[in-house]
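tool=predict chain=A
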Amino acid sequence: MSEKSQVGMPQADPMRVEDDGAVRRRRTPPAGARFDWMERPDGVRVRVALWDARGDDRRGTVVILHGWREFIEKYFETVADLLDRGFGVATMDWRGQGLSSRPLADRHKGHAASFDANVDDVRALMTMVQDALPGPYFLMAHSFGGHCALRYLHDEPGMVERAVLLAPMIGIDLHGFPEAMARGLVAVARWFRFDRAYALFQGQYSEEARRRQASLLTSDPERFEDEIAAYRANPELALGGVTYGWLGAAFDSIDKLRAPGFAEAITTRLMVVLAGCERVVDNRAAKRFCRRLPNARIVEITGARHEILRERDELREQFWAAFDEFMDRAGV
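tool=predict ok
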């Protein structure tokens, strides 16, 4: 697969930071960042960021796959944590979010007809990373990123040494709304060509609406404010709710994961990290899926909410302790 890249991407205005080292670490890109573009065959531009490993003890490259509605700026602290551990890092804004191309004129609509293109973008990113950064290669994927990572690992065995999935989207927490009814509503909306309309209870981005979702995502108010600061610095990063088309694509792709033999064919060693206070994705579905995987272990962090990497320090420390043990077993 050939990829055209354009160096020197227009970057977001620097986020205003307090004179505080912890805040600065979370809100500014670690030194050595290289921003780039992948020009995809369908005309979509995907924003990419790369960091070379530091020091003499270089351990390979971790490719980070974000969750839905996320963007590179939200992961600066995680990138810094990985660089401190001797890893190089690569990541991208998914098509449809961050500063990558959006599919609709209304940039706030989270829309997709299928997740197949997202999985193809992972393949393209891995090709780019193999040309730019040394192996061995590892995946760290959150939520929607964990979902796409599983599909990639199924289709491309042997491309990465190990993968860490945080709160992977193997099912959606519908807050008591029956899944069969949700699927039926989506099917009707698609039939009547309302696939580009916001799904029930979804809407445009606003700071007020996003703040109402904070308790689902993290118990750390300061780290949640990092996200708000990023939107204020560059409103182009903002993304609202999902369309019926996106929900339909999600259910279609979830069905692929649930198909007999799918999980059993993923041979990569996995660590699946679940949030004990999860209310965005379905932990029960994740546990059922993981029992079918031949080389997976589950770690559940009591008290953590969906965005584990943006949780309170004591909860993040539990994650990093498990991560370090898992990677040490790889001999890197």
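Residues 21-328 form a domain with the Rossmann fold fold (CATH 3.40.50.1820). The longest helix spans residues 116-132.
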